[in-house]
Amino acid sequence: MSAPASATGCRDVPVLAERGQHEVFCGLTGIIWLHRKIQDAFFLVVGSRTCAHLLQSAAGVMIFAEPRFGTAILEETDLAGLADAQEELEREVDRLLSRRPDIRQLFLVGSCPSEVIKLDLSRAAERLSARHAPKVRVLNYSGSGIETTFTEGEDACLAAMVPALPETDRRQLILVGALPDVVEDQALDLLSKLGIEDVAVLPARHADSGLAIGPNTVFALTQPFLGGTLAALERRGARHIPAPFPFGEEGTTAWLTAVAREFGVDQAHFDAVTAAPRARAARAVAQAAEGLRDRSVFFFPDSQLEIPLARFLTRECGMRAIEVGAPYIHRAVVGPELDLLDRGPQLAEGQDVERQLDRCRDARPDLTVCGLGLANPLEAEGLATKWAIELVFTPVHFYEQAGDLAGLFSRPLRRRAALRLEAA
Ligand code: SF4
User: Fold this and answer.
1) Dist. CA 384 → ligand 1 center (Å)
2) Is 10 annotated as a binding residue?
3) Do 156 and 229 meet the contact criterion of CB atoms below 8 Å apart?
4) How far is 290 from 414, CA to CA, in rounded Å?
5) 408: Cβ below 6 Å to ligand 1?
6) In what order do the strands lie in the sheet with 296-299?
7) Which one of 50, 92, 128, 166 is least enclosed by Cβ atoms within 10 Å?
8) Where does CATH 3.40.50.1980 sit in the chain?
9) How far is the CA of 2 from the centre of ligand 1 (A)?
10) CA–CA separation, 166 vs 239, rounded Å?
11) Is the domain 15-22+281-423 a CATH 3.30.300.20 member?
């Protein structure tokens, strides 16, 4: 069960640090997948009309259901009005909770308008929690676009849940990260076949899942953007299992290897459980990655999935990475990925968007992975692009999704080739 660390890995290569203008969605975006995952939660965004529009347009599909998120819109107000705003917010929450007995967890989500920043949402959450306990837990976090990238919304949400978890001495594993239910079930099934039974998930689907934490808890991240949650879990005495992320056949095997080692699973049993899904994943990747081999890829910093994806695309799909930009490079989280990523690409942390666009135009990559705001202009300049946000909305983790993950990158290249053919 050895993860093949490359002597030529990128852990120690110099990183281009950029601190300029950046182009990303804000952390409110995470609500769109979190409200599906945490089935008895309500997300109340305390924000402006812009925040309401973002949520409505990004999550328009919700109109047919009893919504589980909303926006308390704060109009411009003077400082004297703030005390009223604080009280009004708490009254609004009381009304919401009396109308909706299905809500068991309520998140007050902060945003970036200055009026909201002046409100003390943590005090509001504490007071409301005391009022509505034990039936409803009220927590708060920030989804502000001032200092976050869009995936940090999930990180802030999960980190906010950790201090409220009950204590346990149980020897257990927690999988950390919001995965689609079907993918989460596949992961739990694989772990169970390996003989690892005491497994919990953060975020749990329901408040009464029994999720608890303590000094005998170990945890494995399934998403690379959870640095704040990692720190919060460690503060509760849990221990992180560092591992590459379960993207592709190799990443999934390396992630499972790290967990299996922690629980003393023997090699023969590990091989017996993983052989068939590994072979399926390798076949699916090989098929879907046709057309990716020897093509070049350039990552703009956006989802924080960039480094694991660069590892997957270069090692399993035969691509060549030119630049791998990430909003943050958190070595405790992506260190094992950097060990596997062959030297060659420029690593960049943070963003100075104009400079990065210049580098991208000079390099003329075959595929550019970037946010929505950059994709259209780059497409107009003749570059094929992949929207980074799709990678968070699509099931891409573990063996059974490995082929789909490769397919997400080969599709834009096939589409561009088809358009060229038609135009010819
Ligand atoms: Fe609201 Fe700020 Fe996000 Fe805009 S960037 S939607 S104002 S939180």
Assistant:
1) 29
2) no
3) no
4) 10
5) no
6) 15-19, 346-351, 320-326, 296-299, 367-370, 385-387
7) 166
8) 15-22+281-423, 27-148, 172-277
9) 44
10) 16
11) no
CATH homologous superfamily of domain 27-148?
Nitrogenase molybdenum iron protein domain (3.40.50.1980)
Q: Give me 181's structure tokens.
A: 């239910």
Q: What backbone torsions phi and psi does residue 116 show, to the nearest 5 degrees? A: -70, -40
Q: Distance between CA atoms of 59 and 30, rounded to whole angstroms?
A: 11
Q: What is the largest CA-CA distance in the chain?
A: 69
pLDDT digits (tens, 9 = 90+) for 296-347: 999 999 999 999 999 999 999 999 999 999 999 999 999 999 999 999 999 9
Cα separation, 413 vs 97, whole angstroms: 49
Q: How far is the CA of 92 from the centre of ligand 1 (A)?
A: 21
Show the 3-state SS of 62-122.
Answer: HHHCCCCEEEEECCCCCHHHHHHHHHHHHHHHHHHHHHCCCCCEEEEEECCCHHHHHCCHH
- 51 labelled binding-site residue: yes
Per-residue confidence (pLDDT) for residue 264, from 0 to 100: 98
Residue-level pLDDT at 2? 43
> How far is CA 110 from each of CA 27, 113, 143, rounded to the nearest angstrom?
10, 9, 6
* Domain 172-277 part of CATH 3.40.50.1980: yes
ipTM of the complex: 0.98
Instruction: Assess whether the C-beta atom of 47 lies below 6 angstroms from ligand 1.
Output: yes
Q: Is 244 exposed, middle or buried (0-12, 13-18, 19+ CB in 10 A)?
A: buried
Cα→Cα distances 200→23, 117, 176, 220, Å: 35, 34, 9, 11
- How far CA 156 is from CA of 142, 227, 258, 274, 289, in Å, comes to 7, 9, 26, 33, 34
Residue showing tokens 């919304």: 153
Phi and psi at residue 345, in whole multiples of 5°? -70, 150
